[in-house]
């Protein structure tokens, strides 16, 4: 645009100079009869100007200045108007997009395409990135909200079943319609159901506590191999009395690691409890630990019934076990969800994997990185 303006002014100046020279030649020829045009052109030098010629030069210079000024103003006005029109259009697009974010579901908001104006490219890219982040945040919020609603429904169901039983037995006892033998049976049933309710409430408390912003893990350096060995030694008698075998492969070399002793014990407890709670006596429970360089890998599993295929992908979600069969299922369905959160708090991962030799029908793999993210 600047080059076009300069070119237009140069052309205009050239035209005005030619017109002025022609006017001066004509004036000189009128004052000097018989003079040729070429002689007149040679004769009209600045120092040979007559008063009339000087007036002509001044008038043409004034006209040239005015025309050049008008040209600059016109070109500038057209340029600014065009820029303002394009900028206003793009700003209006931003305004519409921001209104969509304010009043509509952000997931349904269209992503703005990059504009033709080069100066707006960075703004458009930043806007698009913001929209993507908002979309991801909205999806996460929706998923968490759905999980919360499902959790409330599951807790309500799990509490309603034993409470209904307790209410029925208590009413029978209150109405004194049962004999002494039946009363003893009712008291035992009430006791078992209250234990079930207490276990569910305590488990849910532990689950929700892990998400509390003020909850801190008490990380302490220790020999993780020796810690697992001690835990398995403590569980051995209980497993043996219940008719379960224990197969452990633990190295003699120490494996030092910074971990929350209490919470990691809860993980081991949840995994092994699942094994003997959902399998028949005679099932073999397996555990091993190894130092894989950058990671510490722990396996815990069993050769029992295995986990149904339809549950393997969602086994670590809350109440998955309960969702499969809301009656007659042992456990709260929160143990594996709690275990996952504890392992993730250590910077690691827990997964249900397939045994290489198919010896173990259920096999959990815990991977703990030695170098944790800060």
Q: What would you say this structure looks like, in words?
A:
- This protein has 374 residues and is α+β, with helices and mostly antiparallel strands.
- It has three domains: 102 residues, no CATH class; 63 residues, Orthogonal Bundle (Helix Hairpins), CATH 1.10.287.130; 151 residues, Heat Shock Protein 90 (2-Layer Sandwich).
- The protein is 60% helix and 12% strand.
- The protein is built from nine helices and seven strands.
- The strands form two sheets. The protein has a five-stranded mixed sheet. Strands 1-3 form a two-stranded antiparallel sheet.
- Strand 4 and strand 5 form a beta hairpin.
- Helix 6 runs parallel beside helix 7 and helix 7 packs antiparallel against helix 9.
- The protein is elongated.
Descriptive terms for the model:
9 helices, elongated, two-stranded antiparallel ribbon, 7 strands, Helix Hairpins, 3 domains, alpha+beta, Heat Shock Protein 90, five-stranded mixed beta sheet, 374 residues
How many helices does DSSP assign? Answer: 9
The proportion of residues forming helix, as a percent range, comes to 55-70%
- What coarse outline follows from CA principal-axis ratios? elongated
Domain module tally:
3
- As laid out across the biggest beta sheet, the strand order is 2-4-5-7-6
Concise account of the structure shown:
Helices cover about 60% and strands about 10% of the residues. It is α+β, with helices and mostly antiparallel strands and about 375 residues long.
């Amino acid at each position: 645009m600047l080059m076009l303006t300069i070119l237009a002014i140069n052309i205009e100046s050239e035209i005005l100079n030619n017109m002025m020279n022609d006017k001066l030649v004509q004036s000189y020829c009128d004052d000097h009869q018989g003079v040729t045009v070429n002689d007149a052109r040679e004769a009209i030098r600045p120092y040979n100007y007559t008063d009339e010629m000087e007036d002509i030069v001044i008038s043409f210079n004034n006209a040239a200045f005015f025309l050049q000024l008008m040209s600059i103003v016109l070109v500038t006005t057209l340029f600014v108007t065009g820029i303002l029109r394009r900028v206003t259009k793009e700003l209006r697009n931003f305004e519409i997009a921001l209104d969509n974010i304010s009043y509509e579901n952000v997931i349904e908001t269209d992503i703005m395409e990059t504009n033709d104006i080069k100066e707006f490219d960075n703004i458009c890219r930043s806007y698009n990135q913001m929209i993507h982040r908002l979309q991801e945040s909205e999806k996460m919020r929706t998923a968490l909200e759905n999980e919360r609603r499902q959790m409330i429904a599951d807790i309500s169901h799990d509490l309603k079943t034993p409470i209904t039983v307790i209410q029925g037995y208590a009413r029978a006892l209150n109405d004194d319609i049962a004999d002494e033998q039946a009363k003893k049976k009712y008291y035992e049933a009430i006791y078992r159901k209250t234990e079930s309710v207490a276990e569910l409430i305590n488990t849910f408390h532990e689950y929700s506590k892990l998400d509390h912003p003020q909850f801190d893990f008490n990380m302490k350096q220790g020999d993780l191999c020796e810690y697992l060995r001690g835990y398995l030694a403590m569980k051995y008698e209980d497993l043996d009395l219940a008719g379960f075998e224990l197969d452990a492969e633990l190295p003699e070399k120490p494996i030092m690691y910074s971990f929350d002793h209490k919470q990691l014990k809860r993980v081991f407890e949840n995994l092994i409890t699942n094994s003997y709670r959902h399998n028949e006596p005679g099932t073999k429970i397996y555990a091993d630990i190894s130092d894989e360089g950058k990671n510490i890998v722990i396996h815990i599993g069993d050769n029992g019934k295995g986990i149904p295929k339809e549950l393997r992908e969602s086994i670590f979600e809350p109440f998955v076990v309960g969702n499969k069969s809301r009656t007659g299922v042992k456990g709260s369905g929160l143990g594996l969800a709690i275990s996952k959160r504890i392992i993730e708090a250590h910077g690691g991962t827990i997964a249900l994997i397939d045994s290489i030799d198919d010896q173990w029908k259920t096999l959990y793999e815990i991977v703990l990185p030695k170098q944790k993210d800060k």
